[in-house]
Amino acid sequence: MTELERMERGLWYDANNDVELLAKRSEAESLCFTFNHTSSDDPAHDEALRTLIPQMEADAIVLAPFYADYGYNCTIGAGTFINHGAYLMDGAPISIGRNCFIGPSCGMYTAAHPLVAEDRNLGLEKASPISLGDNVWIGASVTILPGITIGDGAVIGAGSVVTRDIPASVIAVGNPCRVIRPISELDRLDASER
Question: What is the pTM of this model?
Fold first, then answer.
């Protein structure tokens, strides 16, 4: 079994010494560089992003700088907005639903490393998928750890570290991130506020 196959199956794999994985990350790094260092009105800007993330729906918006390890493991839904400085460590799939707001400097990290130093020093890692439902709002500087699912309509407060799944339609904040309360009709704007 190749290291790529091991990665795709959620097994321990060698991320640091495998030629195939290094080549894929190098290609993604080059596309990120092009996207991050060209003007948004330069056709190369959008072309680099669309090549990096082929599973991004047409009307999603991603602002530079943006980083992904592989890119092709990311799915970004229609109407989603990703602010400056996002990093998607996509050794496993990262799925972002439709109409999500992702604040600046958000990090989604699918990779975990062995806890014992001798094992960790072998360069091994394991990746677990991250999934965000539709209409999720992730505040600025949020960290989302491997294997996390965030339900539709959830709001994650700025600076939170998400270490466990978050259900739909709740406000969750903190380190570790905890559900504070459900989102209710009392949170709806008055017509005069719109």
Answer: 0.95
pLDDT tens-digit map of 170-180: 999 999 999 99
pLDDT of residue 189: 85
Cα 45 from Cα 31, distance rounded (Å): 9
142 found inside a domain: yes
Domain of residue 139, CATH code: 2.160.10.10
- Report the b/e string of 76-90 with b at 16+ CB within 10 A: bbebbbbbebbbbbb
* pLDDT for position 192: 75
Percent of the chain with pLDDT over 70: 99
137 within a domain of the structure (yes/no): yes
Tell me, what's the pLDDT at 172?
A: 98
Q: What is the span of the domain harbouring residue 43? A: 3-180
The 10 Å Cβ neighbour count of residue 1 is: 9
For the chain, the domain total comes to: 1
In a domain, residue 192? The reply is no
Beta bridge partners of 166: 150
Q: Is 45 known to be catalytic?
A: no
